[in-house]
Amino acid sequence: MSFFGFGQSAEISIELSDAEKRKQVDVRNEEGKKEKLFLFYDGETVSGKVNVLLKPGKKLDHMGIRVEFIGQIELFYDRGNHHEFTSVVKELAGPGELAKNCVYPFEFLHVEKPHESYTGANVQLRYFIRVTVVKRLSDIIKEMDVAVHTLSSFPEINNSIKMEVGIEDCLHIEFEYNKSKYHLRDVIVGKIYFLLVRIKIKHMELAIIKRETTGSGPANTYNENETIAKYEIMDGAPVRGESIPIRLFLSGYDLTPTMREVCRKFSTRYYLNLVLVDEEERRYFKQQEITLWRKGDLRTIRKERRELAALQSRDRPEPDTPSEKMVKDEAAAEKKERENAAES
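RE: above sequence
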């Protein structure tokens, strides 16, 4: 974790105040490898300390030391331009000379984290803490990435999806999915009805496709499609009147919430793609967009918040942060669902 450059006389490290208690999650980096990062939610305080360690017998002349919390979007094909949607700066020290190791505490109180961390084919949305020791020739910089998850409450309206697809006088099918909005550990349940079959169907499959759109304007828009999952729901020829059930578990796949027009830089949408293949290898397909959202583990989040609050031991008169409000709303919605189920 060291960040050294030739001729630098100090090493910088960043430690979070609640690192022992805070949850870590796997996040895919730009190279496609997974790394563990500390997890935060919108409105949570980010605090810790910066250690400046001098080399033996060395002193450090500087023009100031600062720490920043940054939320940034980077398009891989336009790396020179970074869009910062969150940026908070704290000055740790003014110009001077360090003759010994120093520790500087920092705190970003209830900092906004409006978007979920994301790394895709052409874009990366990341949050990080950056420490800069300003020097005359070259600054000493240390960065530490953190992960952010956005929690959503139960959608008020979640209609089922019903559509008819057909080829005149050859094929007529009707498909139905139980809802249009799914949380990331949900189950897609549906049925396929064959109303008319005059072509020989060999097999049928259901795929989840992620479509990442970056840029803006017709000339600067890039679409990248990725097949996240492929599930064979039928093998063999169906007959008229046959009904094929669908049950697809989402928890086993690497999914993110649906993200639409994030800072007008990118979108990530998901589609259910129903594909039929006949004996001559001709493919018939129909796509339908679905919305994915992240449902929080209420018990775990409440426990983590209690432990973090005890660690921070800070009285705060401010109202609930957005993420805390979402957790409460979700708990109320689950309680209402249980009551309705009991009545029925």
